[in-house]
Every structure is written in structure tokens, then in C-alpha cells.
Amino acid sequence: DSARSQGSMIMSNLTSVHTADINRRQFLAAGTGLSFSLAMGSAMLPMGTSAQTNDARMAINVWVNIATDNTITILAPTAEMGQGTLTTLPLILAEELDADWSKVKVEIAPPNPKIYGNTHPLLNGGQASLASVAVPGYFKPLRVAGAQARRVLMDAVAAKWSVPISELSTQNSTVVHAKSNQRISYGDVAKFATVPAELPKINDDELKKPEQFSLIGRTNIGRIDVQSKVDGSAQFGIDARVEGMVYAAVLESPMEGAKAENVNTEEVMAVAGVLRVLTVPFGVAVIGKTGESTRVARALLKAKVTWNTSGAAAAAGFDSEKSKADYAKQGQDPSAKAMDAYKRGDATAALGQAAKTIEATYWSEHAYHAQMEPMNCLAKVAPDGQSAEIWTGTQFSFLATVVASGILKTTPDKIKVHQQMLGGGFGRRIAPDIIAQSVVLSNITKLPVKLTLSREDDMAAARPRPLTHHVMKAGLDDKGQLIGWRHRMVAENVDAVAAPARFQATGGKDYVGWNGSDLPHYAIPHTLAEGVREMRGMRVAPLRGIGAGYNKFVIESFLDEIAFERRINPLAMRLELTQSDARANAVIRTVAEMSDWNRKRKDRGLGIAFADYHGTLSAGVAEVSLNRKTGKIQVHHYWVAVDTGLPIQPINVLAQLEGLLSTDCPWH
Fold first, then answer.
1. Which of 348, 346, 354 lies closest to 479, judged by CA?
2. What is each CA distance from 172 to 94, 107, 175, 624, 664, in whole angstroms?
3. Mind listing the pLDDT tens digit for each residue in 617-637?
4. Which of 122, 163, 257, 543 has a 20 to 30 Å separation from 316 between CA atoms?
């Protein structure tokens, strides 16, 4: 939620690969218009036309239009899944437009990465809600769009009033000429203004300075989606309904390549309300008149269906516990095929020359996304099978059009996505499996099909964060200074599953899984982070901070091991390593002060950790106790200091930080 905010690397090339398959004629046929850098044609309402209806509005560029009733509609390019971008992104544009925020309406932009793509290098023009890069990626384009719209309005007023534009100013959706004491609302300007063939160029020095912001940084601007969530009017994917809709449940194949056998079709068809039982490549589907009937039928299927896992099912022999011995062996084997993830200096030489070395190993288990809203999608394929409508909450609506059009052997412009709110995504709603399955079932039945996965179904679908093993080694010189660092991670590569095109293009690098294993803020002269690939056939997927989740845990835990060996305070060690990095050092010092680090606590201890995540820096301190009889660890207090850069909505930043903590943990 800041201009220098969080991010991670995922699917950056997937969008560009699919986009390249669409020719210009097909793309324009989607009714999307021209790219952001070009003008959007003339005004929607010509000069002199009466504008008594609220529908009359002027499109200034692809991001904003202004109605003659003073309503300003701003398009949001990403999904709202609880992170607040439905408010934050439009607020950025509204700031430069000098808009009256109370008159702003927000609509979701259509899936069109050539127009609404994210400029952040991690997405490279892709349009998706992932990696926490919405604000940093869209910050500049949205500001320029707002400034362009403001300039168009001012130019129109300057011409109409015959005054120099330098004498005009804007304020709260109003153009002001102070010399003549004239004022005119944006809505009234929309009645006569026209949009030039080429939008005005905006230089950086023409954008507002932070001290001029009137909307960005305000603590009294709440999220626009809160009211609808409170009164129940918010539309999530699970709420979608259309006439003639049927329901579906799927007993999904437990792994890729497994085929259903001994399907008890006759028994399932006897369930009241069941219409069809379909054996499909991804499992066995039940189509019914009600959601209840399909769930009952699916339970019957589970009890009887067996799976043939011979041949193509690579994961058939995988056991996460038994595999750990193999992972550990790969972690220690010098001949294992390791690829460099991040490198600084010569860690191998430094470790070889170290006066003392320290080693440790760590594990992270497979982790389930546990998003609040069950996975769901409503698909309605046209009778001729050449187009479709989709209602779902997805983090990657353009990918939905690509996948659906691929199934129907048509083009993405023939797929209309009705973007719904998401009840949590965390990376799970990037994967298009639920969309693909719904489209297949609708295409077979020629009916609108609503597919919902129960919590059990979603877990059985097995798209978790990967199991990882970490082997850490550090070297100290004869003065006890940390001079060398090696971090080897053994895991299945997420990119290989989630972004195969990029995985191939990079020669097998796992930018998703390796994320966060670099050490940009710690002054260790020689470091190496490397990855060894396991191939077990699991459908591993990104989750939240992706690799940063386990990599930061491992890094900070190992730093404590090193501090223990050096017999120094873990806080002192982190301050030492960041003494030449002002931002990192500041958040560590701040959280130490917040927690009163040096104060002794009876029967309690303090732990500290630091993390960076693509520009956002944070440090936390936990106060804990151990019940030596039961082994139970209790967290009593937790303090966190965060440097987000420029916070667009401070109240939302605070809400996200507090939301990470357990409800029974006091907040400070």
C-alpha cells in the first residue's frame, strides 16, 4: 500500500507469451480502444448538447471519465481481494486530478494488459493482482493520467474564458480563476470540453510534490468496499447467479495424470437433483439442480472411485515425510546440480578461508492457502461454443480469457470476465484450474455451470506452497566478523508449474521460490544463495510472500545462531550488519526502542527479526514465555516497525499490519 511497496516474482513472462498469440485485429475486436499513450478520441458529449442525464460523461483517457453530474469514474486495473487496491489505486489518480473524492466512483477495468498492464518490472506489462506490486507499478501511470485529465479540463476552461492557463487552478473538482473570481465544476466543463487528438505530455516536475497532496496520506479516507461488505451487498464470486444455472462438484484427480476408474455412476445418478455424471481429464464431475445434491453425490464418488496412477502420474510415489531424507542429501551433496539465485563476492573462497564455520539446517512444510472464500467459478458458454461469460473472483482475469479461449478454440476477445470481489487470494486465485474446469463443464452441458470447491476439495486439489529444505553455512574471520554466507535451498520449483514459459526462458531458475534469499541490507562481503531442484510431480503454487516466507525465516533464524556463536546480542548483530544502510538500521532501532529491548523480563524472553520485501522494510520483536512443564510457548506482546516508503492510505497500512497478528495477541 505504498509507492515503494512490496513485490515478488511470478508469472511475469506468462502474460507476454499469451499476449503475443493475439493479433492486432483480434485484440481491437475486443472493443478495448487505444493504448494509454494515445488519445481516446473526442468528448463523449459534443459542445452544445444538453446533458440532463447522469449517463452523459466525457472519457478523457482510458482511466477516467467525468459525467456532467460531477461524478468521476476511475477504473481500477486489479482485483479487490481484501488488500484495498480498489480504493488505493483510484486515490492516486484522483490526487493529481484534484478530484472531489466524495464524487468518485470506481469500476473494474477489463482484462487488457496492453492498456491496463502493470509497468513494474516484476510483471513487465502483465495485468494481474499479485506480488504486492500494484501500487509501485501503477503509481506513476495513474498520476500522469490524473494530471492529463486535469490539464484537458483546464485547457478547455482557458479557451472558453479567454484567460491564460497559468492563471487557472483546480480544487475539489473545480477549476478556479482567482482574478475574476470565476469557478466552474468539472461536470460543467464536461458539457463543452473536447479531448484533443493527442493527450498533453506531463513532465515529472508538473506532478504534485508530496507536501501538496490532499488525498494521499490522509488518515480519514476509508476503503470504498467496506460499506458493501458490512451491509452484504458486496458481490463475491460465490454470490454469482444467472438464469438457467446448474451446479457442479468435482472429485478432482489427486495428482496430474491420475485417471478415474470404477466410477459408480448409477449410484450417484440416484441422488435426487443430480443431472449428469461426467468423467473428465481432471477427475469426475457431478452436475445437479442444487449445490446440496452435487455435494452429496461427490461424497458417494469419493467412497467408490479409484485412481489409476501408473505411467503419467509423476507424484504417485511422493511422500513428503519419506522424501526428506532425499532433500537433506541434496542439500549436502557437493555434486548436486545447484543454480545460483543471488551472488555477491566469492562465498566459496571466503568459507574456505574462514577461521570458524557455523552450519544449520531448516525445513518448511507444504502450506495450504486457506483463503476464506471457497474456490468458485460460474461459466456460461455460448451454444456454438465460440464465446463465453465467466463470473469469478480471480487474481488474473486476462489469464482467465486466455485459458477459456484455449479450451473453446476461440480467441480471448470472445471471453467476457465479470470480475467479482475475492474473499482472499494469497496466490491461490492466480491458478486458472477452477475457471478451466467450469468452462469445460459448461461447454459439455451447454448450460451455465456454477462450480464450487469445498474446503476439503480445495485441499485435495493439492496446490500448496512447496516443501523446502535449507542448508546454511557461515564463515567468521579470526576477529569473529561474518565474512562468508551460503544458503542452499532444495525444493520443487514453483516457476516450473506456475510460469513454465519463464522457467524455460531462464534456464530453470525459480524466481518465485528463491525470492527473498538475497541479502541486500546486510553487509556481508561474500554471499551465495543457490537452489537445487526437486521434481516430485506436486502442483506447487505461490503463496503470499512466496519464497520470502520461508527464506526470511531461515535467514533470521540462522543469524541468531551466528550471534549465539559470537556471544553477542542478536539486536547488536543486526545493527552491526546494517550500520551503512540507514533505512534498515532505523526500523531495527525503532522496534528495539518500542519494545524496550534492554529491560529485563522475568521468565520471558525477546526475539527480533528484520525483513525486506521489494522496498518495504520491517522489523519485529516478540515477547514470549515457555511453560517448561507443557512445552507451550506463549506470545505476550509483539511490536513491529515498518518503513513502507510513501503510504498512500496509512489507515490501510495499519489495518494490514494488525491483520497479520493473532486476535489474542496485544498490539503495540
1. 354
2. 10, 21, 9, 50, 42
3. 999 999 999 999 999 999 999
4. 543
